[in-house]
Amino acid sequence: MSPDKKVLNGQEVEEITKVCRSKRYELIQDGRFPKPINLLGRNNGWLASEIDAWIAERVAERDAKI
């Protein structure tokens, strides 16, 4: 599987971003966090590339304020 197609589960996303589940879904509703993809039933996942991009945006915002 190519790295841009790797899917992360909610726990992995939380470990990487340090954003808890409830806050993630709040940010998703506000359009400020990548939307999950439905895998099967109630199982959701996030593309690792989109999470990486979201983190890069946070870094760019931080650096722009300096």
Outline the structure in words.
- The chain is an alpha+beta fold and 66 residues long.
- It has one domain.
- 52% of the residues lie in helices and 17% in strands.
- The longest helix is centred in the C-terminal third of the chain and has 17 residues, at 48-64.
Topology pattern, helix = H, strand = E: EHHEEH
Task: Using the CA coordinates, give the radius of gyration.
Answer: 12 Å
Number of helices: 3
Overall residue-averaged pLDDT value: 94
Shape: globular
As laid out across the biggest beta sheet, the strand order is 1-3-2
- State the major sheet: 3 strands, antiparallel
Structural class: alpha+beta
What is the terminal separation in angstroms?
38 Å
Q: What level of helicity do the residues show? A: 40-55%
The low-confidence parts are none
How many extended strands?
Answer: 3
- Beta-strand percent range: 15-25%
What is the domain total for the residues? 1
Jot down its keywords:
66 residues; alpha+beta; globular
What's the short story on this structure?
With 66 residues, this protein is an alpha+beta fold.
Can you lay out the helices and strands and say which pair or pack?
Blueprint lengths: L6 E2 L1 H8 L3 H9 L7 E4 L2 E5 H17 L2
Antiparallel strand pairs: 1-3, 2-3
